[in-house]
Amino acid sequence: MIKPYGVVGLVPTTWGIKTRSDIMKNIDHLEELSHGALWLSSLDLPVRLLVLPEGALQGFNDEALDLPIAEFLNDGAIDIPGPETDRLGELAKSQNVFIMAQAKTRDPDWPGIMFNVGFVIDPKGNIILKHHKMSSLLPCERSASPHDLYDEWIKKYGRSLQSFWPVVDTEIGRLGIMMAMEGNFPENGRGLALNGAEVVYRASLPTPFTENDLFEISNRARALENNFYVVAPNIGSMYMFPTTQAPIDCGGGRSLIVDYKGKIVGKQEDTNGSTYVYGVIDIEAMRYHRSNASVSNWLKDIRTECAQLIYENPIYPKNTYLHEPQGNHKHYRETILNKQIEKMIERNVFVPSVYDKK
């Protein structure tokens, strides 16, 4: 039996990095913030899960400044495991919590490729799951998706749900990761759910997508349609560099914890200073709902043979980074984005607006 437990999602101030060594300043702050957040939150129920938002370690300068991938890989991307995850492992051990977090990474098996990886650390400090982001914040994020390397990816790791939407079974439930833009594509949530996920990490999104309710709507929709918890702490204020005079509120707040029926069970609207969001996860209640509801345990009723028709014709090109390096913003817009919109119009999926006519 898994007793109900508390989950804390940090909403930290972040300093964008110039070099990999700058990450340690962010980890210093995360350690300080977590001590206060965990102590205060444990006045309710014991906290078993600590979640760090996307960007908490490195910021987003690789995206905002359109840095060359080779430059960031050399002195910005981390290794997993590495010194940074070792420190987070010590934090997990000292607080007896699982940690879910994210970082831009490099991998010796994929030289010259930058990934965006979500990972889980257990209370013993071990990395027990790594998830490679499937859907980046295009066109400004150039992290490679497994789909960008598809043919070689399935040769190395197989063609299974675990190869693309991995889930790890733990003493606090089955954990999975659906970062940022991934949560805007129902396929990513469904892939995790059909692989058994019960608690899903979904962080972060920037403004304007928080201020127009997109973040909340997508978090609640993915939780409801898949009957799993979504833990979605957003980024806080960010200094572009460690020496920048004042921070920018890139996230706009709206940090959430959503239960398996799409109900908000924890929220933090504020980003004026470092803060956190807290909620309670009841795995046994979720499992009971899944196995006893007649209607709203939706997964049992998926019409898979018909649904496959939706994806019969390829849409986004696979293997993009097997054939060419990860480019800059302009290159992506010219070679991918514009062509994708044209493809949707040609297939009569999109209809041009009168605003498009010159």
UniProtKB/TrEMBL annotation:
Report the superkingdom from the record: Bacteria
- Alphabetically ordered keywords of this record: Hydrolase
Keyword field contains Hydrolase: yes
The record's section on InterPro entries has:
Aliph_Amidase/BUP, C-N_Hydrolase, C-N_Hydrolase_sf
For this UniProt entry, the molecular function terms from Gene Ontology, in alphabetical order, are:
formamidase activity
- Judged by the first EC level, this protein's enzyme class is hydrolase
Every copy of the CN hydrolase domain together lies at: 3-283
- Which PANTHER family does this chain map to? BETA-UREIDOPROPIONASE, NITRILASE C965.09-RELATED
What is the protein named?
Formamidase
